[in-house]
Specification:
The chain has nine helices and 13 strands. Strand 6, helix 6 and strand 7 form a beta-alpha-beta unit. Strands 5-4-3-6-7-10 form a six-stranded mixed beta sheet, with helices on both faces. It is of the alpha/beta class.
């Protein structure tokens, strides 16, 4: 629950203090007047106002409740509307998919690329109301699809984009994670999209030298980078594309690619994101949705007043009911009867008095 005008809640202690202060001043005034009338003391049986104790307590409790409920009504309390089918339950995020040659390594069957794209396809198929965009990168990052609810279009793009179709300079061209974060961050900034989430799907190897700089810069702009690690720590040889065998570097040695979890964890910790390994069945993306995206989506939805319903009639009805009940209780209208002379059943012994209790001079015959 939240309030449209929370500043009006400050009226609650002010009004409650005013009511309590009025009671205290009124009781003090009554004691003083009775004392003046009764000759210096209010301890006279006939001076008892005859108020029924439980009625007075109920009267004050109802008045105090009305003093609290009326400012609460003016503050306009609103309740969050839990709607599983609402589009506002989703969260916008940009998928940054690694297209570098190391994604063809076979330490994950059949290879990293197919394992990642198959898991992403299932992940997007289960999306209810997320706005999803796609960035692919190797040495340079490209925006393939802006944020959209059309996840089927993203699934189609995943089937056609692959490391085999990307032109690279050199046989061992690597991936630039910083360029992917930079490209996604510029899109979020240009389109003023909150919240800002980038999901890196990569093996974590980085050929650039500005990764942490880009991560820090966009973290200050509210971009949270999550990472899905594809591959194993043991790694595998990177295959050639045009010929059989493994790719070799400039020294003639075969290139072995390993999952760099430390690099990915460093980025996610710096930006407030979350790192998960892809897993054999692609369950890492499911974990990411359940533990990071879903809470973030609900938190974002709670910031939008369109997802709330007005519930001010509830405190308003209770305040009116308290005022009506206070009138019915009527502590000032329902008083115990005063009796002169000795108590003769039905009256309170403390409310009886005799002429001897009256102030002033006494005369005798």
């Amino acid at each position: 629950m939240r309030f449209a005008h929370p500043e009006l809640l400050l009226l609650i202690p002010l009004l409650a203090g005013l009511v309590v202060g009025t009671w205290w001043l009124g009781a003090r005034r009554d004691r003083r007047r009775i004392a003046e009338f009764s000759g210096g003391t209010a301890a006279r049986p006939w001076a008892d106002p005859g108020v029924v104790p439980w009625r007075r307590r109920a009267d004050r409790a109802l008045a105090l409740a009305a003093a609290i409920l009326l400012p609460l009504t003016l503050a306009r309390p609103m309740a969050f509307r839990m709607d599983e089918q609402s589009e506002l339950r989703g969260v916008p995020y940009m998928i940054a998919l690694d297209l570098s040659r190391s994604m063809l390594a076979t330490d994950v069957r059949p290879n990293r690329w197919f394992a990642a794209t198959n898991a992403l396809s299932r992940f997007l198929g289960e999306s209810r109301a997320d706005r999803v965009g796609l960035v692919t990168f190797s040495g340079v990052a490209y925006l393939n699809a802006p944020l959209s609810f059309d996840t089927r279009a993203i699934q189609a793009m995943l089937r056609y984009a692959s490391p085999y179709t990307v032109e690279m300079d050199g046989e061992t061209a690597g991936s630039n994670l910083g360029s992917a974060i930079e490209r996604a961050g510029r899109y979020f900034q240009t389109n003023q999209v909150p919240p800002r989430v980038v999901i890196l799907v990569t093996d974590g190897e980085d050929s650039g030298d500005q990764l942490l700089e880009f991560a820090r810069r966009w973290a200050r702009q509210g971009v949270k980078v999550c990472a899905v690690g594809v591959g194993t720590r043991g790694g595998s040889k990177v295959p050639r594309i045009q010929w059989c065998g493994a790719a070799v570097n400039t020294s003639g040695q075969e290139v072995v690619s390993r999952l760099n979890e430390a690099n990915l964890k460093r980025i996610t910790a710096l930006t407030g994101g979350r790192y998960v390994p892809l897993g054999d069945q692609g369950d890492g993306l499911t974990t990411l949705r359940r533990e990071f995206l879903a809470p973030l989506a609900e938190s974002s939805a709670r910031e939008d007043l369109k997802n709330y319903v007005e519930i001010y009639p509830i405190p308003l009805s209770l305040a009116l009911l308290a005022l009506v009940a206070q009138e019915k209780v009527g502590s000032r209208r329902h008083r115990l009867p005063r009796r002169q002379g000795p108590n003769r059943g039905g009256g309170r012994p403390g409310n009886t008095y005799s002429p001897r209790d009256l102030p002033g001079p006494r005369y005798s015959r």
